[in-house]
Amino acid sequence: MELPIRYGLARSPCLGLRPFLHRAALSDTVGLWESLQQRGETKLLQALEEKFTIEPFKAKSMKDVEDLGNLVQIQRTRSSSEDMAGELPAVRDLKKLEFALGPVLGPQAFPKLVRILEAFSSLQHLDLDSLSENKIGDEGVAQLSATFPQLKALETLNLSQNNISDVGACQLAKALPSLAASLLRLSLYNNCICDVGAESLAHVLPDMGSLRVLDVQYNKFTAAGAQQLAASLRKCPHMETLAMWTPTIPFGVQEHLQQQDSRIS
Asked: Where would one find coiled-coil regions in this protein (predicted)?
């Protein structure tokens, strides 16, 4: 994982020390911190930690997830140390996290990510699609749902293209009220949700006071599921958009629902 550009110093034959742009790997940074810790250079270590950021972070490999886990472990160690009290800024200030490992590595790496998610107290945007189809499935949704009570700042949750069925949709719906005060946008685009899952989501919608956009397009529910969602939408004046077009809904039904409520697309 390459991190955002930061300023450092480089030596020039003509100018001596000068600023330059560089990218540091997260693993290299963690290694440096561990070395400083072992040498007892606490003040220098603290100064580096305070300036270091990973915002935003995109995990594209298993190593990226492992490096992120090592960073969280440093925070946990720091929190138990009298000399290094408080949250690690890089962990505390992370607001956007993308997971893009694809359908092969995604299901393997996701449990590792879930175990550290609650450490990111400021996380606002969790993208588990990132155009890579991670295929976390129903099991991944169940693992993720257990972290919702700790993700109090989460505003955007993208679960598109993750092979989620009715089982996962029902588990998700049961856990969503934990995010009722913060979640603005939820995407379940292009999954395998049928009428049972759509009904579960419809049931919880009125409880989601902050939710503005729900995208359940390209799933597998029929007119029955669509009608349940549309009926629930009428109880949700706060919602702005319900995107639910899918080939399994008869065109006439979709058109009728759109005529009844312009928020449906």
From this structure: none
